[in-house]
Amino acid sequence: MKKWLPFIITLTFAGWLVGQAFPPKDEGLAIAEFGKLPILNGGRRQPIDSLARNTLLQLRGKQTANYEPWKEWYQKPKIVPATEWFMEVLMNPQVGDTRPVFRIDNPDLKGLLALPLDKGFETDAKHFSWSQLQPKSDALLKETMRIVKDVPSDKRNAYEKAVFNLWRATFIYQQLKDSLQPPDARDWAAELRRFIENRDAGRAAAQAKQAGAPYDEAALDQIMDDVTRFNAMEQYDEFDFARKMELRMPLFLPPETGSDDHGWQRTGQALMEVARGGTPNFALAHYAVIGSAFRANDVPAFNQAVAAYRAELAGRLDANLREASHEAYFNHLQLFYLAMTISIFSFLAAIIYWFRPAAWEWLRVTAVQLLCLAVLVTTIGIIFRMVLIGRPPVINLYSSATFIAWGAPVLGLILERFWRNSIGVVVGSMIGGLCLIVAHYLSLEKDTLEMLRAVLDTNFWLATHVVIVTLGYASTFVAGFLGIIFVVRGFFTSAVTPELKRSLARMVYGIVCFATLFSFVGTVLGGIWADQSWGRFWGWDPKENGAIIIVLWNALVLHARWGGIVRERGLLNLAIVGNIVTSWSWFGTNMLGIGKHSYGFMDAAFWALIYFDGGMALLIIIGALPLHLWRSPLETGAAKPGKAPPEGAEPQPA
């Protein structure tokens, strides 16, 4: 029976994955179909579903909205998809304003906004609605302006960061409320129709009044009211401070034909052009009917209106519609989340195997098969992303994290092929899972499929540089985590034998050779790309310095081993130092906010980086402690603590 358990467990996980591949069908409102409609946001075409998910990630850190966060999980709180919440914000903001989607943890910020500090009836003291925040929005804005003016971004404390982040979230929320229709609209389809019917009469009345002739006062009053409303929709896109932060309103209205980025319009912008006598964008009427049907909760009318707009797009912007549908499906799959979950189970199985390796070989096989499944899912996710954006697999910190989450498990499986002791699986699944967790937190900052900066103009050298140098990062981490396993198991348990120590040292030596080659070649290719893009091969940019430091560190480790300066234990300890070097070169250089490579996320993982490197430093200290303090007998003939050495055994050097 045991020989079938790995197959059964792996097949169960595979069945779970297959089940995730089929999105649930809409029951009632065609929410998923609405989420597939294309828009232009952040300089790229994307589905409404992506904007909804990314917005919720920035507001509450999750891709779903919990309308009853004060309820425990067993009380079944009302949790809705991001697109459903987004529809309320766009088309029924009076209801959307009551949804508790703003997460606030800082107690001083809660005090500024007069929010409850303790959990109570219909509040979990963490999530709040715009209706709760709006009465103190002026105080929030005033405090934000003070912070921006007086406190540099790298000097802000937890309270000041919380204030700024909340203001940013509320600003984005208010932009969205004005992005599809006037937020005070009650029946937008009828109001839009009335505006267009009155447009010519209103313009004529305005011209007559200016000329001092008799005019239709009712028509003039109507068009003036409409223009005031439409102009107000544009106010959140005109703040200079918001433009500097790249907080621009999404463009819902596509061009008449074509699949490029030219011709897309904001709704307020298009309405103002109509007021001046222009032709209404064809999508205006469709979105108006969709909005009125949603507000009236008329399910058949809403579904019919969404289907009619999709049919209209199918004849005008086929490529946009197809790309949006593919990305919405990618969002539904959440491949990296699935890979992270499987990696965690693989890690647990491999760790448990260590307790009884002779009897639980089936657990090691299970861990290997699960890690293979995780690598397969990660591979599909990376390829899917490449197809969506038409770029190499690494374009920012997020994609570098997912790529390392692929490379490290592959190297771990290679190690497991030669040393069947689950160490390769533990290292691969640990790094893969951690990197996917890092990727999740990086996704809270912005759109992970963002457009490339101008300096990242794609060419052959860029594609090869980012892939090869990231493999160098991944392999250096694999070597470092092998060192962690040696120190943790050797110091705290008696499981590390001299033979296992030598095996670990051979693993690290081989991986460091691989890391040295790839990090060096990747750095040279980066210089060639920089010469083509910026006109210089090397400029001592912080990211460039970080890359060469990784190369030099790996070379130092190899020379220390070749020169006999360190033996197995020293080699494994130096590999842990490589974790610190690589993490700072990977993340720390971006956090400096200077140089041409500061195009990634800046603040998301600062404290995580500090804690990670602090933990590595502690392990290095433990790894350097005298051997008589270790529980494992690391030298042949060495005795365990508290026991006499075997008769005739020679004293062993530390």
Cα(first) to Cα(last) distance is 46 Å
Shape: elongated
Instruction: Output mean pLDDT.
Output: 88
Low-confidence stretches: 637-654
Characterise the protein shown here.
- The protein has 654 residues and is mainly α.
- Among the domains are: 47-177, no CATH class; 188-233 and 251-317, no CATH class; 452-629, no CATH class.
- It has helices at 5-20, 31-35, 48-60, 82-91, 93-96, 107-112, 130-133, 137-150, 158-177, 188-211, 217-233, 240-244, 267-275, 282-295, 299-316, 318-333, 335-353, 361-389, 397-418, 423-442, 460-492, 498-534, 542-562, 568-591, 606-623, and strands at 38-41, 44-47, 64-66, 79-81, 102-103, 127-128.
- The strands form 3 sheets. It has a two-stranded antiparallel ribbon with strand order 1-2.
- A hairpin with a 2-residue loop joins strand 1 and strand 2 (44-47).
- Helix 17 (335-353) runs antiparallel to helix 18 and helix 18 (361-389) packs antiparallel against helix 19 (397-418).
- The model is unreliable at 637-654 (pLDDT under 50).
